[in-house]
Specification:
Nucleotide Exchange Factor Grpe, Chain A, domain 2, 3-stranded antiparallel sheet
């Protein structure tokens, strides 16, 4: 039956076809529609959103809570490891900050050593000059020692050590044992325990 514009129903409600509805039926229909909306909202949530809501309200015994706690602890451990690594790298950087500068100064020591190695059959005047060169070398060496630089042990007769020695050739010296240092070609140096340059030596081979 079509709805009459002049007719005023008791409750003032019509259905879609123009039939009068009572208040209880209308309320029931309204509640049903509200429930449908709520169901639609729940279905629209993604798995990630549901998991996030679950993590906020689950009990400590729940597997989801345990997984979230495990992830949190791993993240804290990773953060602590990164912090320690950065601190260690910073300390190492400070410790060896002058490494490149000291490495550039080594040729000066080499030249002073070379000058002192050729001092045979010199006149008295030249010997005084050699004394000055030797004093200069000692002062220079003391200055770099204050920054942690020290010479590598590479005296003639010591056992060849590939960790601190670099073999540049071999010789046959009967007075020495095989694999001993027969000649020091160039001194080696350490910086605060770290090898800055190996000592270049001739190794005795019998």
């Amino acid at each position: 039956m079509a709805k009459n514009n002049n007719e005023v129903p008791i409750n003032g409600l019509y259905d879609d076809e123009g039939r009068i509805l009572d208040e209880q039926v209308a309320e029931a229909r309204g509640e049903g529609e509200a429930e449908s909306v709520e169901e639609a909202v729940e279905v629209s949530l993604s798995k990630e959103e549901l998991a996030a809501l679950c993590k906020e309200s689950v009990c400590p015994e729940c597997d989801v809570f345990k997984e979230a706690e495990s992830i949190r602890l791993r993240a804290l451990a990773d953060s602590e490891n990164v912090k320690k690594r950065l601190l260690r790298e910073t300390e190492e950087l400070k410790k060896y900050a002058g490494e490149s500068i000291l490495a550039d100064l080594l040729p000066i020591l080499d030249n002073l050593d070379l000058a002192l190695a050729h001092t045979g059959n010199l006149s008295a005047e030249c010997k005084n000059f050699v004394v000055g060169v030797d004093m200069t070398r000692k002062i220079f060496l003391d200055a770099v020692k204050n920054h942690g630089l020290e010479a590598v042990q590479a005296a003639v007769g010591t056992e060849f050590d590939p960790e601190i020695h670099e073999a540049v050739g071999t010789v046959e010296e009967p007075s020495l044992k095989s694999n001993q240092v027969a000649q020091v070609v160039q001194n080696g140096y350490r910086l605060k325990g770290r090898l800055l340059r190996p000592a270049k030596v001739m190794v005795n081979k019998l």
